[in-house]
Amino acid sequence: MKAFFKVIADFSAKILVVPLYAVLIVGESFIKSDQMFQGCSQLLSLIPGIPGNYLRRQFYCLSLAECHNDCCIEFGTRLNQHGIELGRRVYIGTNCCIGLCRIEDDVMLGSNVDIISGKTQHSFDRLDIPMREQGGELVKIVIGEDCWLGNSSVVMANIGRKSIVAAGSVVVNDVPPFSIVGGNPAKVLKNRLPESVSDRER
């Protein structure tokens, strides 16, 4: 019975977000950037509770490069690029800001997590031009499967699978798989694998 009601809720949510998705498609024919998408994401982020979770999930299933019907995106969370990919059973907590990234299966994000689109998003080499006019390059960050990013962490580099990022950490360098990292900048505090595990299994 629970599965039946979930199917009905998903279908109803999809019907409700189709008009917003249509507005997005039309708007993007005039505005060649992610601004329309960001506006839709900001609007949907304001809907609280279970209805908000259903509406956000269905909208992102329609509009993202990849999104599965078993993810959960909580209140206040904004996604900034169409190219974001969300794997299966991804959980994203409240008030997160998600840049260009691939979040693989079974990843958990706490509240207030920022995933920034790499370290070259803003150029700052020249002093005769304001930084906002120097451009930059977005890099797709990869968060490996079964990772846990603690509250208020900031991530601008890849996270290897089955790793843990401590709350409040700032990740500026790639994190090896099976690591526990913490601090600013984040450093490896522990390897989750027992010493008896072979190199092949690592």
From TrEMBL:
Superkingdom of the organism of origin: Bacteria
Question: InterPro entries per the record?
Answer: Hexapep, Hexapeptide_acetyltransf, Trimer_LpxA-like_sf
Report the SUPFAM superfamilies cross-referenced here: Trimeric LpxA-like enzymes
The record ties this protein, via Pfam families, to: Hexapep_2 (PF14602)
Q: Which PANTHER family match?
A: LIPOPOLYSACCHARIDE BIOSYNTHESIS O-ACETYL TRANSFERASE WBBJ-RELATED, SIALIC ACID SYNTHASE-RELATED
Q: What is this protein called?
A: Transferase hexapeptide repeat containing protein
Please tell me the species this chain comes from: Pelobacter propionicus (strain DSM 2379 / NBRC 103807 / OttBd1)
